[in-house]
Amino acid sequence: MDIKYTSTEEIKQYQATLLPCTLAYLQEYSPFYKRMFQRDRIDISEIKTLEDLRYIPFTNKSDLQQYNEDFICVPREKLIDYVTTSGTLSDPVTYAFTNKDLDRLGYNEKVSFECAGAKPGDMVQLMTTMDKRFVAGLAYYLGMRSLGAGVIRVGNGIPELQWDTINRMKPGIIICVPSFILKLIEYAEENNIDYRKSSIRKAVCIGENLRNQDFSLNILGRHIREKWDIGLVSTYASTELGATFCECEYGKGGHHLPELVICEVVDDKDRVVLPGESGELVITNIGLEGMPLLRFRTGDLVRFHYEPCQCGRKTMRISPLLGRKNQMIKFKGTTLYPPSIFDILEDIPFISCYQVVLSSNKLGTDDVNVRISVKEDRCGTPEDVIKAVKDKFRAKVRVAPEVEIVPDRELKSEVYNEKVRKAVKLVDKRNNVPE
User: Fold this and answer.
1) pTM to 2 decimals?
2) Averaged pLDDT score across all residues of the chain
3) Can you tell me whether residue 292 is helix, strand or coil?
């Protein structure tokens, strides 16, 4: 029977049986973990349960940066694909895969897309890049190929080319960053494309939150749905995770793939939290051959949900991302995370584009500067615009950042920089941000 449909206890026991093999592999083949086990006198034979993982130190992003090659567990000739992480939290890290790892990656995405409702024979338009050392586009392609779906590799950006492809080839599913859907809609409206009658019935969304913590659509999700009544499926993944949390049709959080990754959530004191509490996601890869990670701190703040899903899966589900640990903002006595700022800006109809800039002041606290561009049909003076934005912030989070109006073309060229894989909505210039 598929492990994802068994009980929570059976899933836990199943993962416990896989753990010793994972530890033995790391002890034999990983220079980094072999050194860690010797240094900290860890006897892996004593790590018998998932709870016993707490006796093993965490792996941090700085470890990957400083000792990158020491995480490689196979001879160089077995490594056939190289990528780098996105560098959202810090400098990018090189990551390498074997043939077996790519098969595992394809399996991960196949199962995830099945969870999202994709079927053999579906036609899928891929609106993410497969180049620039980016693993996601390759993963989606491998997964769809394994599923038996047709893939149209258009790449990111260029709404004109996206719509030309949709009209020519009639795909039913698109894979993209959700904010790009609004750009597709905007282009369609400006060019008299009847997007509501297009072949698209579903979007599998990556890289940005679509939902609130109660799983209702957030402001970005609602804006998309109000314009275009298509299915919206949210996902969460990362290069280091080596797995995907993908929603099913009920949209109540991304489903865990227990055969691929062991997950923990820890608090600020490095203790595993109680069920339902939030904290930092810590992952241990299962079945990776090239560069497996043990108790890796992702920096992402989440919570797990354990009640059975209507789809029949008994796996735990991950919440929408609460924020990133080292992106916490202390601003005028209020604790904020970038997603809450983005939500406010998404809800202001006259804003065309935005970017949030964080910096440190002389007092050692955080300053927040919001750069916006304004749609052409907006009436009122620049002062009126700035006041309206600040009033919105005060109403939502009780504090208001500095607001700067920037020419639309200039701001969009910075936010949607072709040299960067993700939209640069946040620029963190603080000098006191922890690793």
Assistant:
1) 0.82
2) 89
3) coil
